[in-house]
Every structure is written in structure tokens, then in C-alpha cells.
Design a protein that fits this description.
Blueprint: E1 2-9, E2 16-20, E3 31-32, E4 35-37, H1 44-56, E5 59-65, E6 69-72, E7 77-89, E8 99-103, H2 117-125, E9 132-133
Parallel strand pairs: 1-7
Antiparallel strand pairs: 1-4, 2-3, 2-8, 5-7, 5-9, 6-7
Length: 137
């Protein structure tokens, strides 16, 4: 099981950041919420802050934690932990992805998502799903 975290980054206008995987990545050109693999001994929150800085050159603040999604791909399984975030500083710079877009939440279902991200999209769009608030520690 690969442990991964992802960022649902929301801007001041309420738009959501989605990124497109590059042609050389697994699941090429699929849309995803940016993030990455959790290193051994690393807290998911620290992983996400590190990954977003490495991939997008952004400093983020985590606002809420979503519910874990387990997804089985044919060759591997992932545990995906989503977090709702906001940008604290930086200008978005793609270092690994092919493209990005700021989207209205109502348009998110129209994307060609990596399969594991689809339940995360539904989780974010469903107001009855509780997102746990994050307190600064």
C-alpha cells in the first residue's frame, strides 16, 4: 500500500486548483489534486507541505483534513489522504505537471481524473461529508 496525500487548494475566489499529470508520469495526462508519497516517519501534513513546495513552488497552509480514500489500481494500491489548503506565499510554477487550472467546484466532475482522485472530488463537493478542522500545533 502506497501512502499518499493530496492538496485541495482553494484560492480567495473559491476556485480549486487541479493539475494535469505529465506524459511521462504513470496515468499520463490525467487530472489530479497535487501531492505525493509520504516518506517513512513523515507526518502527512509535513509531506504535503514539502510536496507542494517541491512540485509547485508554493507554500501552503492546511485548513482541513478529509477522509482517507483507499484505491486499488491493477498493479498497486494507494491510501490517499486529502487536505483542504490555501496558498500562503509563492507564485505557482509547474515542475512536474503538464498543466494546471483554477476551476469552479461545479466543474470538477468534468475532468478526466486519476481514478483515486474521483472519490476525493465527491468528498469535497458533498457538504454532508465532514472535514476535520486543523489546529495550528
Amino acid at each position: 500500500m502506497i501512502e499518499v496525500c493530496c492538496a485541495i487548494i482553494i484560492n480567495e475566489e473559491g476556485l480549486v486548483l487541479v493539475t494535469q499529470r505529465s506524459a511521462t508520469m504513470s496515468m499520463p495526462l490525467k487530472m489530479e489534486f497535487p501531492g505525493g508519497k509520504i516518506e517513512p516517519g513523515e507526518r502527512p501534513e509535513a509531506c504535503l507541505i514539502r510536496e507542494i513546495k517541491e512540485e509547485l513552488d508554493l507554500t501552503i497552509e492546511i485548513i482541513a483534513k478529509g477522509q482517507e480514500v483507499i484505491h486499488d489500481y491493477p498493479a498497486f494500491s494507494i491510501s490517499l489522504l486529502p487536505f483542504v489548503c490555501r496558498i500562503v506565499e509563492g507564485s505557482l510554477l509547474l515542475k512536474e505537471h503538464a498543466a494546471y487550472a483554477w476551476m469552479e467546484p461545479s466543474d470538477l466532475l468534468n475532468c478526466d481524473w486519476a481514478e483515486a482522485d474521483i472519490p476525493v472530488v465527491h468528498q469535497y463537493l458533498n457538504p454532508s461529508i465532514h472535514l476535520s478542522s486543523i489546529t495550528n500545533k
